[in-house]
Amino acid sequence: MRKSTLLLSSLLIAGSLLLSACSENGNTDAASTDTPANTAATADPGAAAGGTEAPASPAVVPAGALSEPFTATDLTKLPAVAQKRTDTIIVGLTDPSGAFTPYFQESGYDGNVSSLLYASLVTVDDKGVPTPELAESWDVSEDQLTYTFHLRKDLKFSDGSPLTADDVAFTWTIQYDKAYDGGSSLPSLKVKGGEAYKAGTAETIEGIKVIDPQTISVTLEQPNATALVTLGSNVLSKAYYGKDYKFGQLEYIKKLHEKPLGDGPYTLEKFIPGQEVRLVANENYFKGKPKTEHFIYKTTTGDAWQFLETGEVDYASFPATEENISKLKELGYVNILPYTPSTYGYMQVNLKHEQLKDKRVRQAIAYGLDRQSIYVDAAEGAGAVANIPASPISWSYTDEGINPYKYDPAQANKLLDEAGWTVGAGGIREKDGKPLSIHYLASKSKNSDIFIAVAKENFAALGIDFQPEIFADFNSLVSKTESGDYDLVSYSTSMLTDPADGFMQFFDGEITDYENPKFVELYNKALATTDIEQRKAVYKELYQLFNDELPIIFTNYKKTVYAYNGRIENLSVSPFIGLAGSLPNWTLK
In the listed set 194, 227, 254, which residue is the last one of a domain according to the structure? Predict the structure, then answer.
């Protein structure tokens, strides 16, 4: 089970930040062109917790040839099948696994679904600042250790049962169960008494206090800048998910995946693997029943252009090239939004493999791959090369002291020579009798085809035996990655709100073989304060460290345009929670 994708559902946005619909490469992907996001977003609690408010990040960044939203010019051109829909909106999505229970999901695509089934205690606004959701307010102690949440009155789960502080306490508690192996970062907050509960030496968690049905507090052992939104994630029904709970036994929850009980804007009507996920409006949603009765995730594999042109989907995303924007405008019936998401692409490195343990080899790969051609030129400028684990729209972003690793085969060959890899028979480098070989994994896509074509030439010039392996579906890619049979695998993150998000995969069990005490020291230092300027200085050091060490090899940032049915009203997009925040208010005019 891929823990970093599980993390998507365990934090604040619980997948709501993932809603992104059809992919940029012709497949019905949701989060990225290669995979769903592998790190989840949390928000910086600075303003709410007594620190400095994060600087605003632009909600929409100019992309390609479109710098302002474009409004549909002729809705009469809308395909008949889309015109006939009166109470249903359809969005494309890569096929999820069906594990729609937060904290127990198997992929980020599961999080796309649960984003509509569950609400959070706390969400974030367009600046990434925490705002109330199920919790109408909260208090934070002066020492930044105790958080007290005040729930709204009369909250209900979708079956009409009450949602109270007991449900929140249960949700936090099971994440400290010794049997819990999901990707939640809540245990990393070090709730007082959490480890004693996990060890079985305490029957409850000392730091969790239910004060009354609408009030609950939790005390940490040390300050953590992400605590507010991590604690403020989804809430599970104790009566439903905790009915059969026994300490050390959580397998039973898997049986409940097929019939999730949430408190979000929609409820699950039917899941047909490989075809669709059908959702219906929740009459008990605390903000009121959504405006559109039915919402469908179309999970059939296909071409995004075709689905949009035939009216089979109401929303799709594409690279922000001039050609794509021109074609979309010509359709006449779609609104277009330019957008630069708070994500980055990267190649995960198998640090268990001997040839990749040497950072000089990793640096040689960065120098030796023509990333400008792969991710920018081939995308007609709808992208940029990435060199740190943060998006340019992040308040923490910096390029000061950052090596751009511009394409330089000579430098790459020099580093490989220094690392002891000498060119042998057939032009392939060798060391200790073993060839320098790279087994590369990726999902099937146009982008993967481009990467492989360029990488073959680039690696051949370096004397590296390049062995690509492409998977038709995401779950197969994950299984292969988990087996450890790879050297490099391409991924992209989800939307990142807090800078800590870009490093979570090194703590949640996804990447286990990068050991650097300086990294851990700086990471913890950045979380120990809510002051933005102090955190920014620490993250600068972290980015410089990762830019040099390259425990993952950074690839690209994307520039995107969203195209959607011109009949849809009230649609907006956030750089931190995507479309899910506005979706309950979508209407078809």
Answer: 254
Q: How many CA atoms lie within 13 A of 78 on its CB side?
A: 25
Statement to judge: residues 239 and 228 lie in one domain: yes
Q: Both tokens of residue 52? A: 């400095």
Side chain identity at 472, as an amino acid letter? A
- Establish if 111 belongs to a structural domain: no
Give the C-alpha separation, 457 to 471, whole Å. Answer: 21
Is 22 a domain residue? no
Q: What angle do CA 268, 270, 275 make, to 5 degrees?
A: 125
Tell whether 47 is covered by a domain.
Answer: no
Question: Judging by beta carbons within 10 Å of its beta carbon (0-12, 13-18, 19+), is residue 274 exposed, middle or buried?
Answer: exposed
Count other C-beta atoms under 10 Å from residue 211's C-beta: 12
Q: How many domains does the chain have?
A: 3
Domain CATH code at residue 573: 3.40.190.10
The one-character DSSP state at 574 is B
What number of CA atoms fall less than 13 Å from residue 345's CA on the CB side? 25
231 and 334 in a common domain: no
172-177: long-range contacts at Cβ-Cβ below 8 A with a sequence spacing of 24 or more?
A: 172/205, 172/208, 172/218, 172/231, 173/197, 173/204, 173/205, 173/208, 174/103, 174/236, 174/241, 174/242, 174/245, 174/250, 175/10, 175/103, 176/205, 177/247, 177/248, 177/250
State whether 210 and 305 are in the same domain: no
* CB-CB contact of 279 with 116 (8 Å): yes
pLDDT tens track of the chain, all 589 residues? 333 333 322 222 222 333 333 333 333 333 232 332 223 322 222 222 223 333 333 334 344 457 789 999 999 999 999 999 999 999 998 889 999 999 998 877 888 899 899 999 999 887 778 899 999 999 999 999 999 999 999 999 999 999 999 999 999 999 999 999 887 889 989 999 999 999 999 999 999 999 999 999 999 999 999 999 999 999 999 999 999 999 999 999 999 998 999 999 999 999 999 999 999 999 999 999 999 999 999 998 888 899 999 999 999 988 888 899 999 999 999 999 988 778 899 999 999 999 999 999 999 999 999 999 999 999 888 889 999 999 988 889 999 999 999 999 999 999 999 999 999 988 999 999 999 999 999 998 888 999 999 999 999 999 999 999 999 887 789 899 999 999 999 998 877 878 998 887 787 667 778 989 999 999 999 999 888 899 999 999 999 999 999 999 999 998 889 999 999 999 988 777 777 789 999 999 8
Within 10 angstroms of residue 55's Cβ, the number of other Cβ atoms is 12
H or E element, residue 527:
helix 517-527
Residue 108: inside a domain: no
Tokens coding 553 = 């090899």
Identify the DSSP state of 434. Answer: E
Structural domain of 209: 118-254
Helix (H) or strand (E) holding 463: none
**CB-facing half-sphere around the CA of 150: CA atoms within 13 A:** 6
